[in-house]
Amino acid sequence: xxxVLFLLLFPLYLWSQPPxxxxxxxxxxxxxxxxxxxxxxxxxxxxxxxxxxxQFQGKLLVIDFMATYCLSCLQILPRLDSLQQQFGDxxxxxxxxxxxxxxxxAFLQKTSVGKKIRLPLVTxxxxxxxxxxxxxxxxxxxxxxxGQVKAITASDYVDRANIQAVLKGEAINWPVKRDLxxxxxxxxxxxxxxxxxxxxxxxxHYYNAFTSYRPGxxxxxxxxxxxxxxxxxxxxxxxxxxxxxxxxAWKIPVQFPLSQVVMEVRDPSRLFYQSGLQYREEWNLxxxxxxxxxxxxxxxxxxxxxxxxxxxxxxxGVKSRYExxxxxxxxISGKGGPVQGAHAKEAPVSLSDLVWQWNQLPGxxxxxxxxxxxKKQFVTSGLDGTISRAALEGELKKHxxxxxxxxxxxxxxxxxxxxx
Length: 420
What we know:
Layout: H1 2-16, E1 39-40, E2 43-44, E3 51-52, E4 60-65, H2 71-75, H3 77-87, E5 91-96, H4 101-110, H5 112-115, E6 121-122, H6 127-131, E7 139-143, E8 149-153, H7 160-167, E9 207-212, E10 220-227, E11 232-240, H8 242-249, E12 261-264, H9 280-287, E13 289-296, H10 301-316, E14 318-333, E15 349-350, H11 351-359, E16 367-369, E17 377-378, H12 389-398, E18 402-417
Parallel strand pairs: 4-5, 5-6, 12-18, 14-16
Antiparallel strand pairs: 1-3, 2-6, 4-7, 7-8, 9-13, 10-11, 11-13, 14-18, 15-17
Helix pairs in contact: 8-10
């Protein structure tokens, strides 16, 4: 009888009092640790306004740290809500923010995104953030039905296939999301200056360094830090993909249309991240890099950036050039008119936003708006840059606009394999 009673109480024990070896007061939890039973107050979208973690015993609990100012956090909320509906009592997705209850409540009541959120949302949090510290959002913690931490990931890992795998008890080997402090003012590499007396150290030195991706460090770009005492200029790129690195090297805006990047390479997927094809962190581990160059300050700016581009081309295995070309494209023209069709109550998207979204997808002809109607609001539900050419043409026609093929001279970034 005692043995049976022990087995029945064992899951609750894991939630309420984890083994001493896995948790000390104030200590951050890692994979394999057991979560203590916390009582959380100031919970919105919950009938009692408070909850305890032990309430989720026997379920997969996914804690999603988010904020109302985090655009990427808000974009995934419909997917999280849909997953909650699909898995029902097997799963609980718990939203958590450090923001004050009043601010979050106003967001839920007054915004179109907030009004659709049905998941419980913990506000004013400090307790969970102490157990699972992080610097960047989103941040997701996976806890199984016994209260054990199974994974710590970004939100793109929270999908149907992964939830099913955890519920089935399958082994998972996802990268652990760790947000580290990094001093970007320090050099990527340092000389072995301690091996000799101070008088043997050089007054200045030049180098370039190229490394693979460094997990846990946020991407950063520094366009040039001059050190007049050493006569050097330092340019650094931390945890960027090849295309982003080359945009910086050519001084092209980060938002430069992907439709104006000509990739004459065998494997374009290694140059830039494409959502939906691979998890971002896994792509970063394979294809993102760190680059730093310390150059002579006496070189002209043109010479410095020419050297940077040559070095990046060498390390990335490409030949890059930035030029103007006459290219086929799609042109929007016309003066516009009243909307044909009753869609006025649906969420709008501006023409300029639609053009921008279209041009950020690979394999598209450049879309150019020559109508002067960039602020025009489209009110068809679900309209975004993934729309097909035929559907786009039909939507423009409703608004008195035309879509026509044309040739225009545009700036393009051309990338070819170095072996060609």
